[in-house]
Amino acid sequence: MDERDIENHPDLMDPDWQRHAVKEAWTEHRRNQRRGRTTRRLGIWVVVLVVVVAAGIAIYRWGKATSDHYAGGGEPLTTATTTPPSDLPDFARVDLTRPFDNTPAQNWAENITGLVMPPATKVGTFSAEQVKSAQDQVKQAIVESSLDLDVLQQHKFEKYVGLLAPDARADARANPTHYLTPIADGNHLLPVPPRLNGTASVRPGDEGELIVHVTYLVAYAFDPGSHQVYGPGDMEPYVRTDADYILRSGPHWKKSSYGLWLGPSNLYFTESACKASDQGQIAPVFSEPNFNPTSLTPEPGRFDPNQPMPTGDNCH
């Protein structure tokens, strides 16, 4: 092929390859943001930069990949591995039937089975049976707050509210996103169960209180529909929750306060649409066309509940 006619090379003319090249340019821009550069509103100069870098990438890749391209070869962009990555890849093909492959959630269990509870033993004045009952109540509260599609997708919050002590229900009805993380309207999960990774511990609280502390991460896989996605980060938000659930009983409390209460809690969103997460809701990045992540130093706790809770998220 005449080098002067390189702009007509099949690799450069292929729409999939063009999208690939442009994505890599955007990826580099987003990676620089995460390394600490100041985030700015994207303007025309960034668009020009993307086009120039994309062309450079395409020409460079042409020189390396032409023989594989015409031989029908070439390695896949990602391959499933036994050891999951510690971060979401910036660019990777996603199998919508196995969307968590090659992500930090690759080996996590589905739904509530991913939460590890300690053996139920006597804690303070609470018997082993009472501890086991408290643990079961907390697990059900996590199911309703973070996993049940009726609650998340259909916003049937009463399924969660009904698990709380009678005196706790009014506030939960008035402020549901303080207690659970619903899916923002217009977004739908793939028919694949969310993945969960987390642990719990139990300790006595004030008189008549048993505290179950939970720290867990949930990974959601959203149906992109007709939206273009370039990797799992575009469609798979992660939500970390650290919370105390408190079981109250005994003469120190009135009967209407008996039962489960949500104590101090914190949320952290990774690769989540900012407008939704600002409202305590979940939505994928592809639902927000102008998504522009804040510059952050990556913290291990984004994907590991055994690490300290991160101090910011991709929006702040």
How much of the sequence lies in strands comes to: 15-25%
The SSE string, one letter per element, is HHHEEHHHHEEEEH
Mean pLDDT: 81
The multimeric state of the shown protein is single chain
Helix-strand makeup class: alpha+beta
Helical segment count: 8
Kindly describe this structure.
By secondary structure, the protein is α+β, with helices and mostly antiparallel strands. A hairpin with a 4-residue loop joins strand 3 and strand 4 (about 210-220). Strands 1, 2, 3, 4, 5 and 6 form a 6-stranded mixed β-sheet that branches. Helix content is about 30%, strand content about 15%.
Defining key terms:
316 residues, alpha+beta, six-stranded mixed β-sheet, 28% helix
Secondary-structure blueprint:
Elements lengths: L9 H4 L1 H20 L9 H27 L38 E2 L4 E2 L11 H19 L2 H4 L5 H4 L7 H6 L20 E10 L4 E11 L18 E11 L10 E12 L3 H5 L38
Helix pairs in contact: 2-3
Short description:
The chain is an alpha+beta fold. The protein has eight helices and six strands, in the order H-H-H-E-E-H-H-H-H-E-E-E-E-H. Helix 2 crosses helix 3.
